[in-house]
Design brief:
Elements: E1 2-10, E2 13-19, H1 30-37, E3 47-52, E4 61-67, H2 77-90, E5 97-102, E6 105-111, E7 117-120, E8 124-125, E9 128-130, E10 133-137, E11 141-146, H3 155-166, E12 173-179, E13 185-191, E14 196-198, H4 202-215, E15 222-227, E16 230-239, E17 242-250, E18 253-261
Parallel strand pairs: 2-3, 4-5, 11-12, 13-15
Antiparallel strand pairs: 1-2, 1-18, 3-4, 5-6, 6-7, 7-17, 8-17, 9-10, 10-11, 12-13, 13-14, 15-16, 16-17
Length: 263
């Protein structure tokens, strides 16, 4: 038996996706998911996603997301955008807009004519200052710290320390943010579940943008975050106690397709 899959990436944050409306993929086998995501002995990805049947009226699909370690994950912003692009290619919805069920509830997304995918995120409360940075929940828990010399910053070691030692067993995603001389914001992220730095993180970019909106209320409607894998854009509407109308936008690109044999 073999399972058909596709691989997508959103600004370098890459994912294995399977159309699994018949629910035959053995996702309970964490070792299988981890092997498929392994970059040396598998397909190679930051996570794996299953498109399942919708759970509410008006939805086109539901989404199960697994981290590269094989464990069920929380919301993945870039992964959700890639899943929307995949669903569009399968004909699961027509037009630009789609609703689907994600880890944090129903989400709506839009596919632009150039392939850019924009997703509406859940409302968020104001960032909380802690541990030398800011904590904010954007469907996944994130810590955001402002640093200098980001290009040479020890993202892996410091991110691992914050993820494990500062926040304990449940962990957190650690983001490091710097503005360059041209006033562009650059972001690097250590992701839990991947247990390494990724080239980009959608919920991390969202968290960073909310921190910037909190610190600089007069910022532009769209905040651009330059990750190592490309540019993501985030906008949010400040309200009392937090933010509404949060949207994450960026590319979602097919890398290749194939089959995974189950021996």
């Amino acid at each position: 038996m073999a399972y058909a899959f596709v691989k997508y990436h959103g600004t370098g944050n890459d994912f294995v996706l399977l159309h699994d409306f018949t629910a035959v993929f053995p996702h309970q086998d964490a070792s299988l998911v981890a092997q498929m995501c392994n970059r040396h002995f598998g397909i190679g990805a930051d996570g794996l996603m299953l498109l399942r049947p919708p759970v509410r009226a008006g939805q086109s699909f539901s989404l199960l997301y697994f981290n590269a370690d094989g464990q069920l994950g929380s919301l993945c912003g870039n992964g959700s955008r890639c899943a929307v692009a995949f669903a569009k290619s399968l004909g699961l919805f027509s037009g630009q807009a789609v609703s689907f069920e994600a880890a944090d509830g129903e989400r709506t997304a839009f596919v632009e004519s150039d392939g850019t995918v924009r997703i509406r995120m859940a409302d968020a409360v104001l960032p909380q200052a802690e541990h030398g940075g800011y904590f904010v929940e954007t469907g996944s828990p994130h810590w955001v710290g402002l640093v200098t010399d980001l290009a040479e910053y020890p993202v892996y070691s410091e991110g691992k320390r914050i993820r494990n030692e500062v926040y304990g067993p449940s962990g957190v995603n650690a983001n490091f943010l710097e503005q360059d001389r041209n006033h562009r914001w650059h972001l690097r992220t250590y992701e839990r579940g991947v247990e390494d730095e990724t080239l980009s993180c959608g919920t991390g970019a969202t968290a960073a943008a909310l921190v910037l909106a909190y610190l600089h209320p007069s910022h532009d409607a769209w905040t651009e975050l330059h990750t190592r894998g490309g540019v993501l854009r985030v906008r949010a509407q400040p309200v009392r106690g937090g933010f509404q109308g949060i949207e994450l936008e960026g590319p979602a690109e097919l890398v290749f397709s194939g089959t995974w044999p189950i021996l």
